Amino acid sequence: MAQLNFKHLRYFWMVAKEGSIVKACERLHLTPQTISGQLHVFEESLGIKLFRKAGRNLVLTEDGQLVLNYANEIFNLGAELQSSITNKSSAKSIVFSVGITEVIPKLIAHRLLEPAFSLEQNVNIRCFEDKMETLLTDLATHKLDMVLSDRPLTPGLNIKAFNHRLGSSGISFFATAALAKKMQKSFLDSMKTAPFLLPSKDSVIRTLLMTWFDNNNINPNVVGEFDDSALMKTFGQAGVGVFPGSTIMEEEISRQYKVKVIGRAEGVSEEFYAISAERRLRHPAVVAICDVARHQIFGT
User: Fold this and answer.
1) pLDDT tens-digit map of 57-84
2) Alpha helices in 115-154, H assignment, sequence order
3) For a surface tag, which of 134, 155, 169, 281 has the fewest beta carbons within 10 Å of its beta carbon?
4) C-alpha angle with apex 103: 224 to 162, nearest 5 degrees?
């Protein structure tokens, strides 16, 4: 098989990204005839068809989508390499790319990542928030150095990664002073009539809280469900309902959202994990985060 021509690959990549040869020409400052000719040569060298026509548009074939996936990785890695070299030569900083699952509260994420900025070396931190499965895929392809999650990596997934337990926190309930004043003196009795703001149903903490409600004969009046914990707290700040939060962050939550603690879900705790592609931690930022979390934040 002939050696891969990266110039042809870049032309193909640009056409696939822009959706047409004309738009790709504008980005590359080349003529349509040049791009079309180079694409034809590229297809012949690979022995496959990359595009098919759909009306006036070009649509990727199945083989074309496969080539695009590799092209994305190649050119994204090239951009990261260039950025890393530039950062190293100009500021002598280390790049730290971390994925944060959508259910991790922003205040917790900030507290856990803070130690990365206390290193002797300058750290260029890059945070990406997404679903667990997407972040683990990026971790496996070395686009991320670490993933912060509220649950460990399950053995069934075909991904080579390792769990590093950071610790756990209890769950507290918060409400505005005005809403708290309307509630009964008995905490559990108050929970039976209070309006609730809860995390979305696919979150671990939602499942744990629903079990706690059942055990205490509480049928919660759920008035809002949220993927974003910060948005949930903002609605809580407006007095829409009672909302849960990490016990270790009670002071920060109370201060930032101007609410008060009205009680705690006894026996319920949320877990936090750092997931890495390496069993023995080497990245200085990951090492610092795990050490501070275990010995200072959670005290495990």
Assistant:
1) 788 899 988 988 888 888 888 877 777 6
2) 132-140
3) 155
4) 160
Q: Tokens 């008060």 — which residue? A: 260
**Where in the sequence is the domain holding 178, given as residue range(s)?**
169-270
CATH of the domain at 73: 1.10.10.10
Q: What's the CATH code of the domain at 243?
A: 3.40.190.10
- Same-domain pairing of 182 and 258: yes
A 10 A CB-CB count for 202 gives 12
Overall pTM surpassing 0.70 (yes/no): no
Tens digits of residue pLDDT in 9-19: 888 888 888 88
One-character DSSP codes across 76-122 = HHHHHHHHHHHHHHHT-EEEEEEEEETTS-HHHHHHHHGGGGGSSSE
pLDDT one-digit tens code per residue, 235-256: 999 999 999 999 999 999 999 9
Instruction: Flag whether 83 is in a domain.
Output: no
